[in-house]
């Protein structure tokens, strides 16, 4: 028996490899990688006839054992290192998925921590607004959270005080983060978040996984993340190991923001313009239309969802954000 790994001849596929497992007549999967070294590898099952007649073999490894046990396939290769793995059939976000994992990646996927049960900031109830466009939103199960779903102009999980959005958290998987960074959309998202008094971006993965990327140069991603963090320092990018920990962090961040908003209400002056503590923009940069629109809504100025902004709205933004090189007059 042999485990065969070949290059996927379909250039349009996002999964560059084909995996043939010697079980029965042979199971064929499209695969993201050739072995689960740093993280579990996503597999997409396909019909056996998708295996090409003349495959471009990448690896051919003898198999010592290949046995199906319930919803998993235990695979033991005949080599000294990286020889034990498991192909697991499971469900995620309501659909069936298949992952290829090793003992190392399985341990990493289950950090030995238990999230605390204590209420964040001692709050008996935390009202959280979840963006209606968030398909698989956090439920905050077991937390004293009241969830309301409606559209947010920025972020995925928001906190309102006196009818205004004062804090928001944008959630991303590592794949989403990289895609938005490379397309330039991340800069717009951070500009919108920076217009709020408190905001953050939480990533459902480790920062170390940035350097395990294969389809994008890790250095390009790392430099891009450093660049946007310097440009918008008031919007921290927080890496959490798992979705569960990212949800826990989001809950406690919004709870802390709630205490801040209630206890320091003068810092958010309704309709009178922001104070230095409530907004921040990159020094010396020109604001985007989206950034001005978000700032205007935060400060009670009526602006359209699309199209050009009125000159007085743009002037109001500049009046509230004077250039540090421009002397103020009495």
TrEMBL record:
SUPFAM superfamilies: Restriction endonuclease-like. Transmembrane segments: none annotated. This is Histone-like nucleoid-structuring protein Lsr2. It holds the Pfam family Lsr2_DNA-bd. It comes from Polymorphospora lycopeni. It comes from the Bacteria. Gene3D superfamilies: 3.40.50.10130, E3-binding domain (4.10.320.10). Residues 127-207 form the ERCC4 domain. The keyword DNA-binding applies. Keywords: DNA-binding.
């Amino acid at each position: 028996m042999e485990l065969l790994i070949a290059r996927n001849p379909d250039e349009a596929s996002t999964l560059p490899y084909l995996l043939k497992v010697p079980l029965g007549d042979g199971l064929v999967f499209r695969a993201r990688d050739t072995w689960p070294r740093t993280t579990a590898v996503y597999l997409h099952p396909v019909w056996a006839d998708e295996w090409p007649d003349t495959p471009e073999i990448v690896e051919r490894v003898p198999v010592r054992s290949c046995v199906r046990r319930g919803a998993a396939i235990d695979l033991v290769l005949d080599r000294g290192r990286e020889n034990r793995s498991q192909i697991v059939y499971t469900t995620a976000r309501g659909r069936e998925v298949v992952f290829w994992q090793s003992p190392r990646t399985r341990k990493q996927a289950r950090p030995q921590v238990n999230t605390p049960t204590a209420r964040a900031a001692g709050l008996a109830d935390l009202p959280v607004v979840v963006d209606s466009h968030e398909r698989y939103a956090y439920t905050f199960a077991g937390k004293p959270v009241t969830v309301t779903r409606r559209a947010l102009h920025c972020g995925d999980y928001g906190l309102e005080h006196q009818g205004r959005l004062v804090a928001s958290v944008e959630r991303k998987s590592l794949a989403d983060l990289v895609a938005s960074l490379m397309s330039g959309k991340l800069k717009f998202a951070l500009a919108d978040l920076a217009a709020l008094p408190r905001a953050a971006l939480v990533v459902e993965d480790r920062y170390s996984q940035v350097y395990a990327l294969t389809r994008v140069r890790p250095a390009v991603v790392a430099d891009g993340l450093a660049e946007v963090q310097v440009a918008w320092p008031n919007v921290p990018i927080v890496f959490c190991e798992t979705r569960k920990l990212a949800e826990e962090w989001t809950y406690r961040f919004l709870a802390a923001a709630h205490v801040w908003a209630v206890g320091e209400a003068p810092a958010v002056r309704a309709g009178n313009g922001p104070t230095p503590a409530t907004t921040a923009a990159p020094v010396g940069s020109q604001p985007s239309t989206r950034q001005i629109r978000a700032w205007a809504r935060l400060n009670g100025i009526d602006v359209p969802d699309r199209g050009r902004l009125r000159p007085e709205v743009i002037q109001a933004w500049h009046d509230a954000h004077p250039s540090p090189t421009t002397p103020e007059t009495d």
